[in-house]
Write a structure and sequence with these properties.
heterodimer; A: mainly alpha; ABC transporter involved in vitamin B12 uptake, BtuC; two-stranded antiparallel sheet; 12 helices; B: alpha/beta; Rossmann fold; 6-stranded mixed beta sheet; 4-stranded antiparallel beta sheet
């Protein structure tokens, strides 16, 4: 049960990463590598502020702002200085490695006995349960603290998902989607597609940093290495989500990304339980993304060969 | 309405690929005038249209539209005054978004876009009404991705979008060239209809002599980055497809003539 609760909690936290990447990768069609750095930036900023006695809310908010600044830098490198899309992300990500070390002052900041976002919900749960240390969930005793964390991240993801869905259907959200798909058309409709890109990357990386801030509070530490490979994880979640809900409307894409992340985390939890070496996790994930990208067209071709090209 | 003064543009200056695409264009387009630009390949007609649209900034010269000097305006800012339809039917719309969503973008062309809900019921009804006037049966397919439509349908919608808010100037860049003959004729008729009804000022690049004779009030012929013929008023009323073909022959012959004359004349001076 602890495993499932843990998978759901991390799943919801990383849903924020997936939602951020949904904006950059899918809506803006911008392959943004900044993610690996900005999730760590979110974690390190929040961790350091928490250690310095800031309130968890303020620390998380500042972490988001830091993330959006990182995204904006990538966007400006691409639009103002005409650096290639991938390279501008790589530049920001590399710079962020040093910045994260500067922010933390060392490579790892433990968060022991500092308040987190889950404190409020934990108090509430305890009050409701009469001060119990563990609650009964479907026959299992689950620590109140873990449940509180799950509740917190769920509320955060729900709020972000609903806000994002409505935003994408506003006038501004609609032109941002159009600019991602057809920049020429957006310009002809009077939109500054470059500004849209910078804005979108800022929002995207703010969400990624939010994921980082929550991850640090959940894990109880921030580490300069924690962002490595996060982009591929997010991509895997988005791909699973698209397989689940299709690519149709923004609302379904958002729901898909969240469901995809959680399913992915559950699969990982199961795989680890079965004895998968955690060190191999990133290799497995990369192989999975490769398969998800290549297999559909491969199967399609195979199917056509078998069914005599009726679907050609 | 539109005032172009000694506009020049050279692509790849100082290289072997140097192209002097515009060599000092002067053009005045009166309010409500529908003009067509014709010319051989590489004559600079599309370049002129793109210069007005703001795809690139000119080397020298000035552009004035509706009293604004727009020479330095970036493309997206010019969209406040200019509506555009492209040659590629896929260029003017976002394929994966629905018909309604594409059109709602055009209802705010060049205006600030806030956080208001884009597709209210009122907007949706208005969009359906105006799409019904196209008589293509698209009003029942507002939720379909625009990418599922044919090139002709997409071009008709792009035209509708470009003129949804009355533009000070409508730019049509060979907008029927990539369509099958039937759709091309349909879109041409629709163009004439909208331009006439809304009394629009429009500039259309075309390769079709037939279109050039049938649609516009004025015909401009370009060659080597210059305007070489300008049929308007009385002269425009009399012009036939044959006259345009002859004009083409004339400029081509003059090209030929120039080089032959140079060859025969030069030795005498050497």
């Amino acid at each position: 049960m602890t495993l499932v609760i843990g998978a759901f909690t991390i799943g919801f936290i990383l849903s924020l990463l997936a939602l951020g990447m949904l904006i950059s990768f899918r809506i803006q069609r911008y392959c943004d590598i900044t993610v690996d750095g900005s999730i760590t930036l979110g974690a390190s900023t929040a961790a350091v502020l928490l250690v310095h006695g800031w309130s968890p809310w303020a620390a998380t908010l500042v972490a988001c702002l830091a993330g959006s600044a990182a995204g904006a830098v990538t966007g400006l490198l691409h639009t103002k200085f005409r650096i290639q899309e991938l390279l501008s992300g790589i530049l920001t990500m590399t710079a962020l490695y040093s910045i994260n070390l500067r922010v933390m002052g060392r490579s790892n900041v433990p968060l022991l006995d500092v308040p987190t976002l889950a404190d409020g919900p934990e108090k509430l749960l305890r009050k409701l349960a009469g001060g119990a240390e563990a609650l009964n969930v479907a026959g299992w005793a689950v620590p109140t603290r873990d449940l509180a964390m799950l509740l917190t991240v769920f509320v955060a993801v729900a709020a972000v998902a609903i806000a994002l869905r409505f935003f994408l259907l506003t006038h501004l959200g609609t032109i941002i989607r159009a600019a991602g798909e057809n920049a020429q058309m957006a310009r002809a409709q009077g939109a500054d597609d470059k500004r849209m890109l910078v804005f979108g990357l800022a929002v995207s990386n703010a969400l990624v940093a939010l994921a980082g801030a929550m991850l640090a509070q959940y894990q109880g530490f921030a580490d300069v290495q924690m962002g490595i490979g996060m982009m591929v994880w997010g991509l895997a979640s988005i791909i699973i989500g698209e397989a689940l809900t299709g690519k149709c409307s923004p609302g379904m894409a958002i729901v898909g990304a969240i469901m995809g992340t959680i399913l992915f985390r559950l699969l990982i939890a199961i795989a680890l339980r079965w004895g998968l070496d955690p060190n191999d996790l990133k290799l497995v994930t990369a192989a999975f993304v490769f398969a998800a990208l290549v297999l559909p067209s491969w199967f399609g071709r195979l199917g056509r060969r078998i069914f005599g090209g009726r679907h050609a | 309405m539109l005032k172009i003064r000694s506009l020049t543009k050279t692509f790849f200056p100082g290289t072997p690929n140097e192209v002097r695409a515009l060599r000092g264009i002067d053009l005045d387009l009166a309010d409500g005038c529908f003009a067509a630009i014709i010319g051989t390949n590489g004559s600079g007609k599309s370049t002129l249209l793109n210069a007005v649209a703001g795809t690139f900034l000119p080397d020298t010269g000035t552009l004035e539209l509706d009293g604004h000097t727009i020479t330095d305006w970036p493309e997206h800012r010019r969209a406040t005054l200019v509506g555009r339809v492209f040659q590629n039917p896929f260029a003017g719309t976002a394929a994966e978004m629905s018909i309604a969503e594409n059109i709602v973008l055009a209802t705010r062309r060049g205006q600030p876009r806030g956080l208001g809900f884009a597709l209210s019921h009122k907007t949706r009804d208005e969009i359906a009404d105006r799409i019904r006037s196209l008589k293509m049966g698209l009003e029942d397919r507002l939720e379909n991705p625009i990418g599922t439509l044919s090139g002709g349908q997409r071009q008709a919608l792009t035209l509708l979008m470009a003129t949804w808010l009355r533009p000070k100037l409508l730019l049509l860049d060979e907008h029927t060239a990539a369509l099958d003959p039937k759709s091309a004729a349909q879109v041409a008729v629709l163009t004439k209809e909208i331009v006439t009804r809304e009394k629009l000022t429009a500039l259309m690049v075309t390769h079709s002599m037939q279109q050039a004779v049938q649609l516009p009030d004025r015909i401009i012929m370009m060659h080597h980055g210059n305007i070489v013929e300008d049929y308007s008023g009385e002269r425009r009323a009399r012009v036939r497809t044959d006259d345009l073909m002859h004009a083409f022959d004339r400029v081509r012959r003059r090209d030929l003539f120039d080089s032959t004359v140079a060859e025969t004349v030069l030795p005498q001076y050497a």
